[in-house]
Model the fold of this input.
Amino acid sequence: MSDYVDLSALGSVVVASLAGGVGLIALYAFGIRALAAGQDEGRRGATVVAVVSFMLVVAGVGFGLFVLLSG
Amino acid sequence: MDPATLMLVTVVVTALAFDFTNGFHDTANSMAAAISTGALQPKVAVTLSAVLNFVGAFLSLSVAATIASGIVDSATVTMTVVFAGLIGGITWNLVTWFLGLPSSSSHALIGGVVGAALIAGGTEAVLFDGLVAKVIIPAVLAPVLAVSVCYLGTVSIYRISKGAPKALRSSGYRIGQIGTASLMSLAHGTNDAQKTMGIITLALIVDGSQSAEAETPFWVVFACAVAMGLGTYLGGWRIIRTLGKGLVDITPPQGFSSAGSSTAVILASTHLGFPLSTTQVSTGSILGSGLGRSKSEVRWRVAARMGAAWLITLPAAGLVGAVAFEAADLIGGATGFAVVSVAAVAAVSVLYALSRRSPVNSSNVNEAWTQEGGIVMRRPKKRSGGDDTTGSTRTPGSARE
Done:
């Protein structure tokens, strides 16, 4: 099988897919949860956490695109 | 125009036609979920996707992948093989569109070229090791990877945002979905338009118009970007319907996670030199999003039909490619190309006429899924009138979450 498949490339694909496809998505969900906490319970800190999460998601996407396009 | 130039022009036009079918066949990959959850109105979704596909085509030119390199012996690749391969790819793309089945456009193209090369040069012309390594194994890995990533993503976001109010979740994930679906469109343009650029460049090299080392000319990049964008704008509504409504009834969180996982998998695999089919990845992601939500129903009969289509894509497109090669070769020269082109246009017209019996378009793409009639849905018997003005678009899955 490894004659046909570049296993190290496949491994990197799996890791990068999980980082983007699960990690960033979960971070966005966390942002939504924090936003809800900020709205409902009036916790300022939670809203700040939400904004930071969303910004990190955008930064993650930007970083991913940068790596792709410069590569 | 001398015959050789005429043949080159025919191949370029056929390649752009393939690019066009590639675009409308794959609109569903990025936009089916966003359309079915109501995150975007159908027309807005295809317009956005078309623009991003167009832009995406310019983003990365480093690959300009010569399709079928390492799969078919390059000595066998003549203008006729390229032409017959394209005819095979276009035909299979349109048959699967008619049946509302998402299937890989690159597999269709590779199948067509392999079929033509088999007739042109016998079994030695096809590098079966390359075929296994570059097509068959990735075709098995792509859905497995996409299903797993999207399953994990969907489970996580449902868990994480559980306590948030429904309205906030709903609008939050719809906005997120617009973002992920847009990225997916961009990724598609970057990835798929290159296949046609590669084919046209190959034809120019075979013809002797261009040296093998030269870069893809700008007019090729531009023409491919336009063909891809226009195809995407037209929208393969039959496939959008199957992916958005048929396979899984998609909710906003599922739409968000499926487009996110597809984009991540496709960009990662393209970048790391492990190209996977965009169609298989996005279909796998939608399936994974169905498995990841406990209350969601996955229609396995629809999934099985898709799987069957994937299995026969290579041989079916190969058969058409082989027949097209034989015909063009027997008749010979520019006349052969012309006869096969006319036959292909006739076949396309028949398919189009058949599709008009049960049209699927932006106005009825979100109708509830019915099993009768299989994949292709019957037109709702309400007001006859303009295709786009009936009120039936107002039924996206907005009530669910």
